[in-house]
What does this fold into?
Amino acid sequence: MNGREQLQLPAHEKSDMHIVRSKFKAHRFKAMARKRSKSASASKTIRLYLPTEWVRGGFDADLRHEMYEALSGARTIPQGIIEAVSGCAYHSEVVWHIPPQLGIVTQDDDYEIDYLLGEDAENGERLAQEGGQPKTTGEVLAFFLAQELEALSGNGNAPVRTGGLLPPSTIAYIAFDLLQSYIVAPPGPHLQRLIQGLLKLSSAADEAVGSYISRQKAAYILAQAPDLSSSSIAELVDVNRTTVSRWTKEPKFQARVSQLRDWMKSPEWTQFRQKNGRFEIIEVPHQPKQ
It folds into this structure.
């Protein structure tokens, strides 16, 4: 066999070799296609836009909306009041046709709202300071929330789940929102009462105020009737006789009695006691100290 001569394969072997080569080429082309596809995928990017810290600004607004929504359907709170305060009309005047009463459901036609804006809203803040029935939307809402809070304490276990009452966290949130609305005047008495209840200070505060009033009355009595017995004074101011005896031995109490006695000798005392509602006039038998 010379160099030009080639090995001749039988026909059937040539056919098998052609098939092998064709399969190899097909496999190589598929592998190259997968490589190109993978390379193309790696070069593609997806552009995403994510908010920065400014998005936190929506949290407070969403939470406020959620809390006021929770008030809707509450058993004691008129829907019109909820809508007014949730719309930031905190200090609009409420005119009562039928004043609110504990234990009686207030209907929306029991009152009217005179919406106050701008400087008039500042006058509404001052209007809220007046005692008696609540006179502004914020004070009305505080009035009813205080009822809800009291109902929580007297409803046994799980009052929110089984009694359908408002959660304390919702009441506390609304109270703080009402508090923040005051700019030119102190919070009204109904909001103050609500906050006292939330802080669990109401009972202690009532006891302290009652003791203070009794002590002041006792000082006024001794300034006018220094010979009146401790028993008589105790009966008049609704405390024990031993309490009065203890007060009379305290230097601060003695100084208060002396201060009042000097004041009652001045012309200002006559003018002050003539003002309506300042004093009640009582008559007691003279029972000197034993």
User: Anything to note?
Assistant: The two ends are 158 Å apart (CA to CA). Residues 11-43 form the longest helix (33 residues).
